[in-house]
Amino acid sequence: MRRRISLTMFAMVVGALLFAGLATLGLTSLNSVHETQTELASDATKLAQGVQKAVATGRHHESITVLRQSLSVLQAPLGLQGEAILAASSSGGDRGCREFDLGVGADVQGLCLYNLLSPGDPLPSGLTVDQLDIGDLLIGLPVTGHRGRLAYAAYLFSTQVEVANVANLVVVLTRDAPSGVGDAGVWFAIAAAATLAVALIVADRLGHRLARPLQQTEVVTRRIATGDLEARVPVPARVGHELVSLAASVNQMAASLARAQGTQRQFLMSVSHDLRTPLTSIRGFAEALYDGATTDVHYASGIIVSEAGRLERLVTDLLELAKLEAGAFSLQCRALDLSEVVSDTAQAFAPAASALGLAVQISTAPPSSVTCDADRDRLGQVVANLIENALKFAASEVVVSTGESAGRPWVAVEDDGPGIPEQDLPRVFERLYQSRSSEGRKLGSGLGLAIVDELVVAMGGQVAVQSPTGPQGGTRVVATLKPVAPEAADGNGKSATPV
């Protein structure tokens, strides 16, 4: 990993240098060609003006002679690649000139150009007359261009004396544009080599710095995958925010897995204990009956039936909770009278509460005022689990109430027990969680509130717990339910909601 990161960064630097070098070379070459064209145009213009001045009163052939001599002298100083003198006349006769139709009037039908230095030969360096802009020449502008790195310039000037139909001359100069790099290329190569050396060192250092936390994270995640949930990634102090965040996330994941494993272990231990206790009673009384060690058969049978029911309830709740978590059930939600469901469910607990010396008080709103959108059987199960949980800790009574707040119906179950410590409140809906500070009565399976939370959330509501509710303690659990949609309330419709 370290090598790949270092090579990648080094390759990026090499690519950047190559791109910058090629771009600089290309732009320098274009600029060199442009400057050469400009210089040639200036040279051609000054040469023509010098010839005109020298032979201001001379004949035509003297202009050509002066121009030839000037070109011969200036060829080396100007670094010319080639030069030509073209005669420009309205008629070339039998000179084999190249004629151009100007289309400017009946008197001047065309222009004839031919090489005076080498009659019949083309322009120097393979240039052709077609590459000259005749229009610009005729209005006295220098014409420039290039073929690759070969730059050229042409300028037309008057000889002032027409001889043999020749009144104008065109001087053509060509020169190869310099590379534009020169000594700068050598210095660029030296700077590039130094840059690559520094980049290699920096890439190696950065690769090591970046790869080391990733390698440590990889090692720790492998240990976590093999079951070592105590493994933690060292959190780097001077590395980028992303690597620090990655290390913190892995450590948080490991801590969450450790907590989940601890909760699962505690859950299994609790289930094992809750299974072992009734099984011990059932086995003991069954052996007593089998051996004839007890004469009170009715009492022993009652204990066996009671403990078997307790086992059945625990297994049923475990299966119910597994279905809820797996989403392997459906809800038949419809508009319900919340007060009616709560009253029916609470009244069914009156005998059990009386046997414990407790009372179940029902405080509901008028039947027509509180409705909800829920599954009737599941809603009854929610209320039953809340009452059963309250009976574990109540000192004298359990109060069940219904109401509506902000357009949402709710049902609350409150007991007058010792209350729940603040540090235990976030965990009351965990499986088989039992507060260490308050031991309740042995009722239910210990999974009631976990099932309540799953069912209420599945029906579109939420559950909250408040404790203490007064100076003497007490706990109040409130389940807020889904309100009835207007169309459902009007049509009394129902819908099957898969979960």
Q: Give the N-terminus to C-terminus distance in angstroms.
A: 45 Å
Sheet of most strands? 6 strands, antiparallel
Query: What level of helicity do the residues show?
Result: 40-55%
Q: Cα-atom Rg, whole angstroms?
A: 51 Å
From N to C, what is the helix and strand string?
HHEEEHEEEHHHEHHEEHEEHEEHE
Strand content: 15-25%
| Overall strand count | 14
Shape: elongated
The oligomeric state is single chain
CATH class of the largest domain: Alpha Beta
| Overall average residue pLDDT | 76
**Spans where pLDDT lies below 50 across 5 or more residues:** 92-96, 102-109
User: Numbering strands along the chain, what is their spatial order in the largest sheet?
Assistant: 2-3-1-6-5-4
> What name does CATH use for the topology of the largest domain?
Beta-Lactamase
Description:
This protein has 499 residues and is of the alpha+beta class. The chain folds into 2 domains: 180 residues, Beta-Lactamase (2-Layer Sandwich); 170 residues, Histidine kinase-like ATPase, C-terminal domain (Heat Shock Protein 90), CATH 3.30.565. The protein contains 11 helices and 14 strands. It has a 6-stranded antiparallel beta sheet. A 5-stranded mixed beta sheet has the order 8-10-11-13-12.
List keywords for this structure.
2 domains, Beta-Lactamase, Heat Shock Protein 90, 499 residues, alpha+beta
Mind sketching the topology for me?
Blueprint: H1 2-54, H2 60-78, E1 82-89, E2 98-101, E3 110-115, H3 134-138, E4 143-147, E5 150-163, E6 166-176, H4 183-225, H5 241-291, H6 297-326, E7 330-337, H7 338-347, H8 350-355, E8 359-363, E9 371-375, H9 376-393, E10 397-405, E11 408-415, H10 448-458, E12 462-466, E13 475-480, H11 486-491, E14 494-498
Parallel strand pairs: 8-10
Antiparallel strand pairs: 1-3, 1-6, 2-3, 4-5, 5-6, 7-9, 7-14, 10-11, 11-13, 12-13
